[in-house]
């Protein structure tokens, strides 16, 4: 479809040179995963595809904290492509409301299309790819992989988190291992089960190798 192809072109252009956690290939995986979930769960396919493709078009982290830049780019682009304003509004609503920060919003009030794209984005943060992205991010930030004095655990207090020094292994406990319980759709939960087990197995191996207790 022409609109989707033009959207892909825009995204590739805007994301050129971004770090590999949020590059075009992340978008492509989220797009394909969203379509896979949509096949089972339903929802408006066009809105899902557009939101998946455009969801990381302008991360405020890399735009001086500007929270509105993504919506402006999307609005301008879709208007130019003669997409109707109702569809544009729905796509922008998804992009503005799907991040991990908004996890406390009551899931039943969210549109199905948002739930699906959010699930796809979260699935890409776990499993083998999730592990790879996390170590990639940690390396980029020059963080320690792990520190043996810090016992990582789930549901850390602010103090404990500070003490963790932001090691990459700690990120599993502050985010990655929590994601499977934050998913919205049954289809995504099924996919997450295997990825979650794989991360647990990875951590187990990691500690065994670190401590030479294999
Ligand atoms: P998202 O795209 O889900 O909003 P982020 O921008 O927070 O995620 O992060 C992009 C990638 O980097 C994800 O795979 C995430 O798990 C990872 N990441 C984020 N923060 C950290 C951290 N402190 N240490 C290691 N990896 C991180
Ligand atoms: Ni994303």
Automatic annotation (TrEMBL):
<dbReference type="InterPro" id="IPR006674">
    <property type="entry name" value="HD_domain"/>
</dbReference>
<protein>
    <submittedName>
        <fullName>Phosphohydrolase</fullName>
    </submittedName>
</protein>
<dbReference type="Pfam" id="PF01966">
    <property type="entry name" value="HD"/>
</dbReference>
<dbReference type="InterPro" id="IPR003607">
    <property type="entry name" value="HD/PDEase_dom"/>
</dbReference>
<feature type="domain" description="HD">
    <location>
        <begin position="23"/>
        <end position="126"/>
    </location>
</feature>
